Amino acid sequence: MTPDTGALLEVQDLHLRFGGIRALTSVSLQVPRGQITAVIGPNGAGKTSLFNAISGFYRPQQGRVLFDGQDITTTKPHARAAMGLARTFQNVALFRGMSVLDNIKLGGSHRMQSNVLQALAWLGASRREEMRLRADIEREVIDFLEIDHVRHLPVAALSYGLQKRVELARALAMQPKVLMLDEPVAGMNREETEDMARFILDLQEERGLTILLIEHDMGMVMDISNHVAVLNFGQLIASGTPAQVRGNPDVIEAYLGVREVAPAMREAA
Fold first, then answer.
1. What is the pTM of this model?
2. CATH 3.40.50.300 in the chain, residue ranges
3. Looking at domain 1-84+176-269, which of 1.10.10.10, 3.40.640.10, 3.40.50.300, 3.40.50.1970 is its CATH number?
């Protein structure tokens, strides 16, 4: 029996190898319930490998992944999603020919009870079920993310920043307990970044959602995170509050280099 640490998601002594390449070595991480935890580190540090191990795309050779106290190390990705583990991806992964609304509805498909024939016929219980899903999405997701004005447009017609917002909406349609965001503001301009940061903060503060994110924007990380974990060459080299990590000499040396990181850390302060 694992003791209750207050963490909704926990990684214990994770090892991940691809042939002779060590992607993760003895990584342990706790994601406290209802808080924002950021994972940072230079390119190739193992951040996305960690996300893929947590979400079930990679199977670690050693260690455990615990979700709400349950060992999910060998659980399939779709089963983890059904349990309440949702994620976005570093590169936009939407169906570009489909409308915004239809893309978002895909995130809630696991909540549907109708079989394939009922769904194709779109009659009776299947129709009522889909209408309820659509109403929930419009009220809880589309309005919240301020994308009502584009909900009927094809995704391909949207700006990159709005596409990233639609991907977040699809993840929220899953009604997750833990939301994993892989570089949610990568490629965005300053205004788009500020909007996304506001949405993420509101999800945590107003809805109590537990959030785990990877991000290179140090200003955003230091502004919105409760906890920060730092990876370098697949190993956890520091973790703590933003203030603790900001002043950690190992982080200053490893993240971008002493001369470059120190000013970035000061600006984030």
1. 0.85
2. 1-84+176-269
3. 3.40.50.300
Q: What is the pLDDT along the chain (269 residues), one digit of tens a residue?
A: 344 458 999 999 999 999 889 999 999 999 999 999 999 998 889 999 999 999 999 999 999 999 999 999 999 999 999 899 999 987 777 888 899 988 888 887 655 555 444 444 445 566 666 677 677 787 789 999 999 999 899 999 999 999 999 999 999 998 999 999 999 999 899 999 999 999 999 999 999 999 999 999 989 999 999 999 999 999 999 999 999 998 888 888 876 555 444 444 444 44
DSSP string, the chain: -----SEEEEEEEEEEEETTEEEEEEEEEEEETTSEEEEE-STTSSHHHHHHHHHTSS--SEEEEEETTEE-TT--HHHHHHHTEEE--SS----TTSBHHHHHHHHTGGG----HHHHHHT-HHHHHHHHHHHHHHIIIIITTTT-GGGTTSBGGGS-HHHHHHHHHHHHHTT--SEEEEESTTTT--HHHHHHHHHHHHHHHHHH--EEEEE---HHHHHHH-SEEEEEETTEEEEEE-HHHHHT-HHHHHHTT-HHHHHHHHHHH-
